[in-house]
Automatic annotation (TrEMBL):
<dbReference type="GO" id="GO:0006166">
    <property type="term" value="P:purine ribonucleoside salvage"/>
</dbReference>
<comment type="similarity">
    <text>Belongs to the purine/pyrimidine phosphoribosyltransferase family.</text>
</comment>
<dbReference type="InterPro" id="IPR050408">
    <property type="entry name" value="HGPRT"/>
</dbReference>
<keyword id="KW-0660">Purine salvage</keyword>
<comment type="pathway">
    <text>Purine metabolism; IMP biosynthesis via salvage pathway; IMP from hypoxanthine: step 1/1.</text>
</comment>
<dbReference type="Pfam" id="PF00156">
    <property type="entry name" value="Pribosyltran"/>
</dbReference>
<dbReference type="GO" id="GO:0005829">
    <property type="term" value="C:cytosol"/>
</dbReference>
<keyword id="KW-0460">Magnesium</keyword>
<keyword id="KW-0328">Glycosyltransferase</keyword>
<dbReference type="GO" id="GO:0032264">
    <property type="term" value="P:IMP salvage"/>
</dbReference>
<dbReference type="InterPro" id="IPR005904">
    <property type="entry name" value="Hxn_phspho_trans"/>
</dbReference>
<keyword id="KW-0547">Nucleotide-binding</keyword>
<keyword id="KW-0479">Metal-binding</keyword>
<dbReference type="InterPro" id="IPR029057">
    <property type="entry name" value="PRTase-like"/>
</dbReference>
<keyword id="KW-0963">Cytoplasm</keyword>
<keyword id="KW-0808">Transferase</keyword>
<dbReference type="GO" id="GO:0006178">
    <property type="term" value="P:guanine salvage"/>
</dbReference>
Length: 221
């Protein structure tokens, strides 16, 4: 660990305001996304390196505890898979649960959070929940989800591990574990979507105007 107590790793990696230009030959992506990226926010190599650090921190903090890792679908799923793989490698046990929360319409949060899913609240009684999120934007989703889990599940504790955190002046919720602090731009890839597209990208990009205006129904053949 950069300082084996992990003090450095506890702080998110700061991604600067100036987004790296997109260089076609440096990335792997489906051809139908040509022209849909304005810049590169975070590469998959950077994500995987940071996941190792987060897994080590979680293992340090959950010594002797078997947390319930709750994946917020769909966006957090690649992060959840890679983080749980990293935890397995360091012999950190955990249980797995899934919840689906939705608050986005296009590139703006609707403010209304809906939950769908199979989460069995009685399985959370007295347990330490670690919610795995793709991104904390305004914090609306988490500020609705966490009280719901606390009231209905009666867990011993609820913490959040989010891959990304958008730098906004006002936030309703701050996650305990954050991979990257990013500028206030709409990002896609590595599970993050725009109108259900782009989840299938390895890296995280800033969406272009063409990406926003693209008609996804042309792909459904
Ligand atoms: P919040 O409730 O405003 O914190 O938003 C959280 C949810 O909005 C995330 O779990 C994402 O699904 C979605 N979201 C927020 N910002 C972005 C983005 O830049 N790209 C894709 N999805 C986003």
């Amino acid at each position: 660990m950069s300082g084996r107590d992990g003090t450095e790793w506890r702080k998110p990696v700061i991604v600067g305001e100036d987004v790296k230009p997109f260089m076609k030959e440096e990335h792997i992506y489906p051809p139908e996304y040509e022209g849909h990226f304005d810049g590169v926010m975070i590469t998959c190599a950077e994500i995987h390196e940071r996941i190792q650090q987060l897994a080590t921190l979680i293992h340090t903090d959950y010594k002797g505890i078997r947390p319930v890792l709750v994946c917020t679908l769909k966006g957090a799923s690649p992060f959840y898979i890679h983080l749980s793989d990293a935890l397995k490698e360091i012999r950190q046990g955990f249980d797995m649960e899934f919840v689906r929360a939705s608050s986005y319409e296009g590139t703006a949060t609707s403010g209304q959070v809906e939950f769908v899913g199979e989460l069995k609240m009685n399985s959370l009684q007295g347990r330490h929940i670690l919610l795995i999120e793709d991104i904390v934007d305004t914090g609306t989703t988490l500020s609705a989800l966490i009280p719901m889990l606390q009231q209905q599940g009666n867990p011993a504790g609820v913490e959040v591990c989010s891959l990304l955190d958008k730098r906004l002046e006002v936030k309703k919720y701050e996650a305990k574990y954050v991979g990257f602090s990013i500028p206030n731009k709409f990002v896609i890839g590595y599970g993050l979507d725009y109108e259900e597209l782009y989840r299938d990208l390895k890296d995280i990009f800033v969406i272009s105007q063409l990406g926003i205006s693209f008609d996804a129904s042309t792909l459904h053949k």
